[in-house]
Amino acid sequence: MASLIYGVNLIAVGLRSYIGWCYASHHHRLTTHDLSEELVESVKNRILVAPVAALFSIGLSFFNLRLSELCYLLVVPYYILPGRIDKFWKQRTIPHGD
Question: What pTM, to 2 d.p., does this model score?
Answer without folding.
Answer: 0.81
